[in-house]
Write a structure and sequence with these properties.
Elements: H1 23-28, H2 35-46, H3 49-61, H4 66-86, H5 92-112, E1 122-127, H6 135-146, E2 150-153, H7 160-170, E3 174-178, H8 186-197, E4 204-207, H9 213-217, E5 222-224, H10 231-239, H11 244-251
Parallel strand pairs: 1-2, 1-3, 3-4, 4-5
The structure holds cobalamin.
Cobalamin binds next to helix 4, helix 5, helix 6, strand 3 and strand 4.
Length: 254
């Protein structure tokens, strides 16, 4: 057995010390170039809720639209945080703090985007059973609402039966499901088969890091989509009469 003297070494638990550049330096090159939008993305990156609201207020005064600020400012900041987290340059608490700042910003934009509001149709959003990652789902929900859809947000870790019951009751034009964990993907298949059993052929658009196009194509009602911003476009297409096959042709990548 090796005899270790703990006074002779340090536990290297901090991956940040092994990187040449600080995350702030890396992020600097990734932020959007427009000065106002950039300040919002930086505030999300810093997890500074007050600065997020200040940045949004200035942007609105400058004539920018809440939806544009969600897509180009808030989400851009969060994307950079996710990228640096994946690269091991940021920690989970960094992600959570930034996500909270982004959600505050989204709520602020929601209050401001009263422009819309004759409902174009009903949509149900959810995070699959077993999965609690709900930040992306919140973004999808806000984008759909901002585009005039009446969204029933079922929340996270939603049991399959609850999803199906909501569809039977609400008869939405579409479902938007999120999964970030590969282990939770089978819930989509269960939703699909139970809907078909009830003779309901509503498109189930699915996204989030764990979902792939091949997976979504593997079940009858599945549509794959990567970008939250495309979800309202899919809903608009459904209103013009597109069915699942047609949606796949337009929105699938290959
Ligand atoms: C934040 C986070 C958490 C937070 C979640 C807080 C919350 N309320 O959501 C906490 C700390 C709670 C957490 C817990 C866990 N986590 Co976690 N988590 C993350 C992390 C770091 C970021 C996710 C995130 O919010 N990103 C920002 C948002 C904006 O992005 P998003 O959700 O992907 O959404 C975007 C797109 O996907 C898309 N989108 C989302 N939904 C939809 C829907 C449609 C229809 C469309 C088109 C698009 C779309 O639009 C959004 C905007 O671009 C990821 C790492 C990563 N890089 O993803 C790990 C990650 C998802 N977690 C992981 C794991 C394993 C866990 C835990 C099991 C850890 C543990 N051992 O306890 C638990 C899960 C418990 C459970 N039962 O769910 C793994 C999953 C691995 C896998 N592939 O299976 C990841 C990938 C980390 C890793 N690399 O290992 N986590």
């Amino acid at each position: 057995m090796i005899d270790l003297d703990s006074s002779q070494f340090v536990v290297r638990y901090n991956v940040r010390v092994e990187k040449d550049m600080a995350p702030e330096e890396v992020a600097k090159n990734l932020f959007p170039s427009d000065e106002i939008i950039r300040s919002i993305a930086v505030a999300v990156f810093d997890g500074d809720e007050d600065a997020v609201i200040d940045g949004l207020t200035i942007a609105i005064q400058a004539g920018m639209k809440p939806l544009e600020l969600i897509n180009n400012g808030l989400m851009a900041g969060m994307d950079i945080v996710s990228t640096l987290y994946d690269d091991g340059m940021l920690y989970l608490p960094d992600v959570i703090i930034s996500a909270q700042a982004m959600i505050e910003g989204i709520d602020h934009c929601k209050k401001l985007s009263k422009e819309v509001h004759k409902s174009k149709g009903k949509i149900v959003t959810f995070v699959v059973e077993g999965d609690i990652h709900d930040i992306g789902k919140k973004i999808v929900t806000v984008l759909l609402r901002a585009k005039g859809y009446d969204v029933m947000d079922l929340g996270a870790d939603v049991p399959v039966e609850q999803v199906v019951a909501a569809v039977i009751k609400e008869r939405p034009i579409m479902l938007s499901g999120t999964a970030l964990m590969t282990t939770t993907l089978p819930a989509f298949n269960d939703v699909n088969s139970r809907l078909l059993k009830a003779d309901i052929h509503v498109p189930v658009v699915c996204g989030g890091g764990a979902v792939t196009q091949d997976f979504a194509s593997g079940y009858e009602l599945g549509i794959y989509c990567e970008d939250a911003e495309d979800v309202p476009k899919i809903a608009d297409s459904i209103l013009t009469g597109f069915d699942v096959q047609h949606l796949r042709k337009v929105f699938h990548k290959h």
